[in-house]
């Protein structure tokens, strides 16, 4: 029986090799469709050609239509597994769109592409054995890495970064962001004003305390009347650098985000902006100051604009920023080793950019089933990005949290399930990368992460 099973498996694999190899030579439908979209530049055309020739779209595009052989028994299971795995880790449709319209490629996409170009892990060996024309050449690798470096320099680099770190997947914080000082002053006051809540008991600062890392250090935050929130409060520090706001990205801007909690029935529970404005208008001094900046007076749009302007000032430069700007003594040897391990374990394929995160949505449990291992059942909040897009591929995907001040922002993850930073690091290695870190490596990575603790300097 065992021999028969072995023979059957071998037959399926050999059939897969023969049929898929033949099909690959004739299957050009996706490449042709991509070519129909004009590339934004000759360089973009070269990069797209590298991706097309290596059939990256087979497993990493939600738009790819697999050839007919993929429906054959046995082969279908192999194809489904490859595609599902590929889409969990990296979807390149947005990168393709960037090559077509001339916009910068997403920062996390660049980091993922760089990692596999450097280590040669893509396309996988089995895929190359079937699709024998694939596999990055030295010229392909050089083209990809040069393009990635160019994209980073022009779109994502921080002024003042040391030359040796100019092409790092993470960057130092900017010194500041452009702001209107008078709006900032109003925003600071409104951020701490409990009158934005229905019973005048909760302000923005209640869940995002500036004295505790921009969070409240609770698993789930309490709202008006003792209601309890459904998801862990993320830090407000450096949030201006995120590409979207909230764990599920339902707010595209800081202003959109600021407008959410005041009207959320289980958070600040105000019924309308008219209710909030009615209370604030009774404050003559605040109203006088507000109308000097906003001549059209009180409104939800103006209130959230001021709060967002204030939040742009919440940058927290750290020793790590000094290191990236050229101060070789800003980090000790253990912290430097932790940073190297952080990169070597592909943490920087998601925790990228100036905020070391906040630039992409990633599935929680890519390498292992996080939710199956968790003791409690699924909640609506666990659906993540799916709640906004209703795309099945976005279920359990969350905005990658920025790691600045992570030492101060426990408990961790969207569900607040980990109270210890060392445990959080182990979990990320296990569930996202598929590796088990030694205690010494965990200690080094945690040492590095603590170097990201920074200081906010209030505007004067």
TrEMBL record:
Xref: Pfam families: CCP_MauG (PF03150), Cytochrom_C (PF00034), Haem_bd (PF14376)
Keywords: Heme, Iron, Metal-binding, Oxidoreductase, Peroxidase
One Gene Ontology MF term: heme binding
Gene3D superfamilies in UniProt: Cytochrome c-like domain (1.10.760.10)
Cellular location(s): Cell envelope
Domain Cytochrome c: 42-152, 182-284, 333-453
GO annotations of cellular component type: cell envelope
Chief location: other
Name this polypeptide is given: Cytochrome c peroxidase
Lineage: Bacteria, Pseudomonadati, Pseudomonadota, Betaproteobacteria, Burkholderiales
